[in-house]
Design goal:
388 residues; alpha/beta; six-stranded parallel sheet; three-stranded antiparallel sheet; 11 strands; disordered N terminus; disordered C terminus
Length: 388
Amino acid sequence: MTEAKTPGQGPLTGVRVVELAGIGPGPFAAMLLADLGADVVRVDRPGGPGLGIDPARDVTNRNKRSVIVDLKDPDGPARVLDLAERADVLIEGYRPGVAERLGVGPGDCHARNPRLVYGRMTGWGQQGPLADRAGHDIAYIALTGTLGMIGDPDRPPAVPANLLGDYAGGSLYLVVGVLAALHHARATGTGQVVDAAIVDGTAHLSTMIHGMLAAGVWQDRRGTNLLDGGCPYYGTYETADGGHMAVGALEPRFRTEFLRLLGVEDQDAAHTDVSRRPALRERVAARFKERTRDAWTAVFEGTDACVAPVLSLREAPHHPHLAARGTFTDHGGITQPAPAPRFSATPAGIRTGPALPGAGTDDVARDWDLPGPAATAPAPTSKPSHPQ
């Protein structure tokens, strides 16, 4: 490994990562590596990713540097391979076969750098009947059975934004795979390809539920189980002002405390009779509707009833606990989640704001000892030409 010359902090300081620009889970995975101290160079396309967001506010590109390379130019692939030769990790999110056609696939990169960890982020994976098809988070999680678990039983499945598929089943699994392969490469001198498919990762997230299903303690329909809203002690309830409270009082002592503070302690025995759950839920819902969210928050404050207010994105950074921990931070005028997790000896942090396309060209060329220009001139306004 050639150590990065740029200042860094965190446990991945000295690790070099090339990110071939895309949208969604690939950039988030690269951001996580950058947050942990890696020197991440994002290879942007002329014209940008086409998302319509101001690059200066795209915080998934924080702690990175950007160069612009048009992989359809004759010298484009060679510029990426120059970076790959000096990197420890490369991340791409094209459809299967696209990177190979562009001349920057695993074979091309490993010919220049056998130690490289080549991370591939897709929805359907590199093989299978759907591998070449377009898709987004919602379709990936639909086929895994996880989307069908979420929501009320008498309504369509609820959409969990793109958190469950793109980021939990995709980005986090890619990062785990990349770090495991990096450990192997350092021990053996041999890199490898990491095939991180959102369908695989999302299915893997449901492992415990499949065990419960096999044991006969989980019904294969939503809104009828312990953790999907079917239990009155685990769900959300509306308050008098249109807010909501989240209840997670599963264990006996937490449940008893919850019912006591709610003022329905006479219902404590109802948990032993599944047939009484609908009536109990109605009773609990009626009680929550009698007061505002803030009033109920005050009732449960400082207790082990396992009840919390449901906050909005703008409210969350101001919650006393999250504020005390610094779970959110302000950088460059943008409130955003701070890097996670936390390390006692090698703390991570936000070193720079979002990388502006092409702004790191000269610095990367110098710091990575590139043989020639690392990128083209400022990007034209053409649309991106490579499919995700």
